[in-house]
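can u pls check wat happens w/ cytidine-5'-monophosphate
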Amino acid sequence: MTRYALVPAAGSGSRMGGEKPKQYLPLLGRPLIHHTLASLCAVPAIAKIFVVLAADDADWARHDWSLLAGRLEVLRCGGATRAESVTNGLRAMAAMAVAADDWVLVHDAARACLAPAQVEALIRTVGDDPVGGILAVPVADTLKRAGADQRVQATVPRDGLWQAQTPQMFRHRQLLQALECCPDVTDEAGAIEALGLAPRLVAADATNFKVTYPADLRLAEWILRSRQLSSAEQS
Ligand code: C5P
């Protein structure tokens, strides 16, 4: 069974505020998504990385991808929602000789601080699981449900609650069928769960966060820079 990554990158990043989609914002001298793709490329168990762009994406061609050459396949089939972009990408992969039982690791373009070791842990732990699995973090904070007046309506017990991250790793045909059945989900696991299946939770850490708000860029820069420094010290 071959493993592929599928990176939905067709969002506009409206919560970021600016005009440029967030995947192209500069981060340590490269577009943010370059870091995301470089991490996936650093995992030898992943044969190819499919990148789903919006059909009218004008930014991709403005950047240099030569460091990742040979591992990327660009699909210009983004949809109106993240789930639609992933579904379109899975359909395009089927037309490119990806087999029903091949694994697909779906990863948000905006999670630029993904460490290759976390991907390897996911692949190792999921192994040949009949369902698949996701990276996630146990919830550490106390959770409040807000009322309409932005006052606390209730405290939600956090026992057993995890925050879902990506990559989310499922078999190609099962994931496509799940998303075709349940397009109104915010992650792939949600669609698989709607089929009555229980994906495995693989513990990750908070550095694999999704860059969403302007201040997140500075945090991502700090994480990537401190990793660069510690690997330079080790070599
Ligand atoms: O907007 P959000 O941060 O939840 O998006 C998560 C990921 O899904 C991002 O990588 C974004 O580019 C992608 N996306 C997409 N197509 C959309 C909306 C989001 O590929 N229509």
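Residues 115 and 226 are 13 Å apart (CA to CA).
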